[in-house]
Amino acid sequence: MKTVRKDLLKRRKSADIRKENLQLILTVAEQRFAEFGYNGTTISSIAEQAKLPKSNILYYFKTKEVLYKEVLSQILKIWMVDMEEMTADQHPREALRHYILLKIKQSRDHSNASRIFASELLHGAPFLREKLQTDLKTQFIKTCQVFREWIAKQWMNPVSPEHLLFMIWSSTQAYADYGLQSSILMGKEELDDDDFETGADLLTHLVLRGCGIKLL
Amino acid sequence: MKTVRKDLLKRRKSADIRKENLQLILTVAEQRFAEFGYNGTTISSIAEQAKLPKSNILYYFKTKEVLYKEVLSQILKIWMVDMEEMTADQHPREALRHYILLKIKQSRDHSNASRIFASELLHGAPFLREKLQTDLKTQFIKTCQVFREWIAKQWMNPVSPEHLLFMIWSSTQAYADYGLQSSILMGKEELDDDDFETGADLLTHLVLRGCGIKLL
DNA sequence: CAACTAGCTGACCATTAGGTCAACAAGTTT
DNA sequence: AAACTTGTTGACCTAATGGTCAGCTAGTTG
């Protein structure tokens, strides 16, 4: 295999090799961690699936913990981006609708990342605590502030910003976390596009109506 | 210790011993599994916390898997009870409000159980799949049917029963699963009674208004 | 109280997992 | 192409973990 590649595609530069392997390992690791959790995932199993020897994984990531943290840090970024887009000058009708849609899409498109994040929280966020207390908290406070301004402008009813945000997070997150349960209960192999759409619609509707936001 | 107990409380009967120890082990195991997951929990750590020798745990539960399954099966029961209470002849206003309240209380009072359940689902429900497909699915279908009848009676808008139920599950469940995250973000040690109440109120409000159920 | 059963436990074992290392191969630089 | 850096890997080590077992003690029963 490798010799073939070498012959066909010339020799790979060191920098490329590094980049490719890092990416490969991170991708595979994300899959495994999502499915089996931190303790349930072995370096060997990652190696096997990546078709690399175990030692090679350890060459790029000194320890399993380092690898896991690397995976995690990428996830938190993804998780926070969408929130930044909501600003006080937007109308909550569009802003919330948009945010909910993005968040549900994320559950579909980055299901592994979402699940790792959830699992981490579930078990007390041992590796993520600090970042939660700093990065995410900052963003959280900002977003709550946006909600408060919307309330001040009487664009929405005075609901608790914190709890509203939790509620949106959990409901959207659920399409990743509990996607399996849902599909089992509905007798499907997997949730389909329609499910994600119905979910997004329902949630948007509940939130907008529940917060007394005019639907236009 | 033991000799003291024996002297003070007479000798314990075999049956009692069995019952007490089983209960003790199950309780401790639930704590550990909730905090560290299946793979992250060692029999030794359970033994240590229960102040029993490891062998004694293995005496009552042949394997770790057996113990875990026993913990799980108790959980699913708890998880399903509340749902049964909703029936078509009740008005959704009271029925849903009541259900949401119970479910959130459950997140508070049985936080460990809730988290184990969540973790199990998150990782593909390896030990629970069957029971989901049978017991829970049956109840799920029943409850969706109740929702449909409410819709037929025009007591609520025609929303997707399945997705509505998912949404209630995830939002209430969140107070157990993400309780830690929430408290970190709000700068508290723990979620307090007030939080649970605010959460329940908000969610109830969103659901009732969002489903067009008259608030009285 | 003798025979029996249930509860208890330390010593032991096999497997596995994370991680090290030394030696070699492949790229890079001068 | 020699010297050097980066990438690769199998063999090896150590610690932990799930689980067994033989022998013990404590309750039960005829």
TrEMBL record, chains A, B:
InterPro entries: Homeodomain-like_sf, HTH-type_TetR-like_transc_reg, HTH_TetR, Tet_transcr_reg_TetR-rel_C_sf, Tscrpt_reg_YcdC_C. The keyword Membrane does not apply. It comes from the Bacteria. Residues 42-61 bind DNA. Residues 19-79 form the HTH tetR-type domain. The keyword DNA-binding applies. Keywords: DNA-binding. This is TetR family transcriptional regulator C-terminal domain-containing protein. The lineage of its organism: Bacteria, Pseudomonadati, Pseudomonadota, Gammaproteobacteria, Alteromonadales.
